Inverse folding.
């Protein structure tokens, strides 16, 4: 039986099985042993299978031993069929994969393109070699014809070669410079914005401060030279400058000073220790940067840097807005002075010779810098009356001041419209009249001087006309109602007034009035040390309180502290001048 099985196994052709190209496509999940695919069999194979099936039947009739053998042969045949079907499926799957890879890679097309490129390269190399060979053949043939009488064609070729060599020499000599003048579109580079970082913000502020340090030192030395901080240095500088200006050497002097400054900087960069300054430099302590910061420290760091940046940007904005308003005739009486001065300078430059004009400008600049500015700095009243540049600059308004003025004018118009019925009538209830400026000062409870029982001359300063919202923490009191009070804080010329929001109309028992001369100590205060920042309170100590009173929860704490402290120092200075013994 095994011999017949071998004969059946190896006798059949591969063509008798299912043609893989004609077979339907099957997925990977279908290629398993559970799928049964019946191959096409030939007539010979069917006859052999029938013989194989008949022989077991005869063997069964022969006896039980032959029947078991026939069963074994049938199982072997089924296993062979299963393996054969699996092999055919694997072959079909691999052929499909190979076909897909060929379609994706396109190896044949790439080979063809590569061959074309090789042919083109070979052709180009041949053309270049032919051109070089022809040029080498032409050059020796033309050189011996030069001394002899050339023909018309030979002379033309010689001229062409001379022109070519000349153009080639010019291109080799100046071609690089000509290429620099080629017009190209400008490349737009967009800088990427860095993410917000407390460490980076602090470092940038320190870099800005270090960058401004030479400018600030230079301006400080000029101010010291003008104010005669060192009498000998200022006197020598004045004499030298006036001598130079008298001889017309001002511009050479400034150029020489610039060269001298660069020479000193070169020596300092080489390691020399050269320090020359009219005003001694104050070295600020540099705090080493901390690596590990807590959340509170980072928040405090950001607040400090943001405050410095706010003040710096505010000063720069004020300067730019004043210059803009000066040229835009916002204050005509101030711009008119500049206008007349420019006309005088123009007429002088047209009529006077430049040598005389330079002499006049140099002498006036020296006298103004060394003498007039010193007198004006020493006598502020003279400066406020006669220093024209100072008057123009201080009286120039910023855009913020113009906005406040427009709001004030609008409020005046509203008040004037309300009191148009009776011109001689008294001010309305809760309003205090300012006779000098025509303004009304009032609080929520009534007229300002009536609420705090003060003279009518006492009125809030300009910086606190509406007051600062805050809460008064009186640490001498024990009851909660007296310990903390919400209200508004005002400062006048002689008093510090706190209006409690819980006080009844007409009653001033819960209001607080502190005389500025009675203040013994005023400091910035931080109510809760747990919170980040420098605090939002002001502590004020007086002889009548055991513990300093605290005005906390104040949004504009720094502005209020500056106004109160400035007015306090002004009052103390005036009192000291009147009574030196106290």
């Amino acid at each position: 039986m095994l011999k017949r099985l071998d004969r059946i196994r190896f006798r059949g052709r591969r063509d008798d099985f299912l043609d893989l190209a004609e077979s339907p496509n099957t997925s990977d999940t279908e290629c398993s042993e559970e799928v049964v695919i019946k191959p096409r069999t030939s007539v010979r194979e069917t006859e052999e299978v029938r013989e194989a099936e008949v022989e077991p039947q005869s063997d069964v009739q022969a006896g039980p031993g032959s029947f078991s053998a026939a069963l074994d042969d049938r199982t072997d045949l089924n296993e062979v069929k299963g393996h054969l079907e699996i092999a055919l499926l694997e072959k079909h799957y691999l052929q499909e994969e190979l076909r897909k890879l060929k379609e994706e890679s396109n190896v044949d097309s790439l080979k063809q393109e590569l061959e074309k490129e090789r042919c083109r390269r070979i052709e180009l190399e041949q053309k270049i070699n032919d051109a070089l060979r022809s040029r080498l053949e032409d050059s020796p043939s033309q050189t011996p014809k030069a001394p002899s009488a050339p023909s018309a064609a030979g002379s033309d070729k010689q001229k062409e070669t001379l022109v070519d060599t000349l153009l080639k020499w010019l291109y080799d000599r100046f071609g690089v410079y000509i290429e620099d003048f080629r017009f190209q579109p400008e490349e737009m580079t967009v800088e990427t914005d860095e993410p917000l970082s407390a460490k980076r913000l602090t470092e940038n502020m320190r870099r800005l401060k270090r960058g401004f340090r030479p400018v600030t030192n230079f301006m400080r030395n000029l101010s010291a030279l003008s104010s005669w901080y060192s009498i000998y240095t200022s006197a020598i500088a004045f004499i030298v400058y006036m001598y130079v200006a008298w001889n017309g050497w001002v511009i050479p002097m400034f150029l020489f000073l610039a060269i001298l400054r660069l020479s000193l900087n070169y020596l300092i960069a080489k390691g020399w220790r050269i320090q020359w300054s009219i005003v001694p430099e104050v070295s600020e302590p540099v705090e080493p940067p901390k690596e590990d910061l807590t959340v509170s420290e980072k928040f405090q760091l950001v607040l400090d840097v943001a405050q410095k940046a706010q003040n710096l940007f505010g000063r720069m904005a004020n300067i730019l807005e004043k210059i803009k308003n000066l040229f835009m005739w916002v204050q005509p009486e101030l711009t008119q002075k500049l206008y007349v001065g420019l006309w005088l300078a123009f007429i002088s430059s047209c009529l006077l010779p430049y040598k005389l004009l330079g002499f006049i400008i140099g002498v006036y600049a020296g006298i103004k810098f060394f003498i007039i500015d010193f007198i004006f700095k020493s006598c502020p009243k003279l400066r406020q009356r006669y220093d024209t540049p100072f008057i123009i600059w201080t009286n120039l308004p910023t855009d913020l001041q113009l906005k406040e003025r427009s709001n004030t004018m609008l409020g005046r118009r509203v008040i004037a419209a309300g009191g148009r019925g009776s011109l001689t009538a008294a001010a309305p209830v809760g309003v205090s009249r300012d006779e000098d400026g025509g303004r009304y000062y009032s609080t929520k409870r009534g007229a300002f001087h009536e609420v705090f029982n003060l003279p009518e001359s006492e009125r809030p300063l300009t910086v606190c006309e509406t007051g600062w919202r805050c809460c008064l923490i009186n640490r001498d009191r024990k009851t909660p109602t007296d310990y903390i009070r919400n209200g508004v804080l005002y400062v006048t010329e002689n008093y510090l007034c706190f209006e409690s929001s819980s006080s009844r109309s007409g009653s001033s028992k819960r209001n607080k009035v502190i005389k500025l001369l009675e203040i013994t100590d005023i400091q910035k205060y931080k109510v809760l040390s747990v919170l980040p920042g420098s605090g939002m309170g002001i502590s004020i100590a007086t002889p009548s309180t055991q513990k300093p009173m605290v005005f906390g929860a104040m949004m504009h704490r720094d502005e209020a502290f500056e106004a109160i402290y400035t007015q306090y120092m002004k009052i103390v200075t005036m009192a000291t001048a009147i009574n030196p013994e106290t």
About this structure: The CA atoms of residues 28 and 93 lie 8 Å apart.
